[in-house]
Write a structure and sequence with these properties.
Number of strands: 0
Strand content: under 5%
Structural class: mainly alpha
Biased composition (Basic and acidic residues): 1-11, 119-133
Shape: elongated
Region (Disordered): 1-25, 108-133
Biased composition (Basic residues): 108-118
Radius of gyration: 33 Å
Largest sheet: none
Helix content: over 70%
Order of helices and strands: HHHH
Length: 133
């Protein structure tokens, strides 16, 4: 019950924040979490991972099928949003990389064909003349 009250209080506090304050708060939290992560030893990191896995498994085990489906839908939406944000930038990068790769392949191919043709063109051979009949 105390957790519920604390959650409601923090939700109302978050609702009153301006977008700039929200961004500032998120940045500070990110910095704190990054500092905490850097300070962890490999053994502690492994413990944190196993705890996170246990938590998620416990949540999945106690969720009703309807709630599970709702969570899946939300997760799909989040993933789609994240992909959409990332895809535009990555697509540009992949396009430029692909363009450069195809250009490189074309130039290499052109050089190869030129090298194959050159000896035949440069060779001066006295071909036999047709015999006059």
């Amino acid at each position: 019950q105390q957790r519920t009250l604390a959650r409601e209080r923090s939700a109302t506090r978050r609702a009153l924040l301006t977008p700039e304050e929200t961004q500032q708060q998120r940045a500070t939290i990110r910095e704190i979490n990054a500092a905490r992560r850097v300070a962890l030893t490999p053994k502690e990191i492994e413990q944190q991972r196993s705890l996170a896995v246990d938590r998620s498994m416990a949540k999945r085990a106690t969720v009703t099928p309807i709630e599970a489906e709702e969570q899946r839908v939300l997760a799909r939406e989040r993933t789609a949003t994240r992909r959409a944000a990332r895809v535009s930038e990555e697509a540009k990068q992949q396009q430029t990389v692909a363009y450069k790769a195809t250009r490189l392949q074309k130039t290499v191919k052109q050089k190869q064909t030129v090298m194959k043709r050159k000896p035949n063109q440069d060779a001066k051979v006295d071909w036999p003349k047709p015999v006059d009949m």
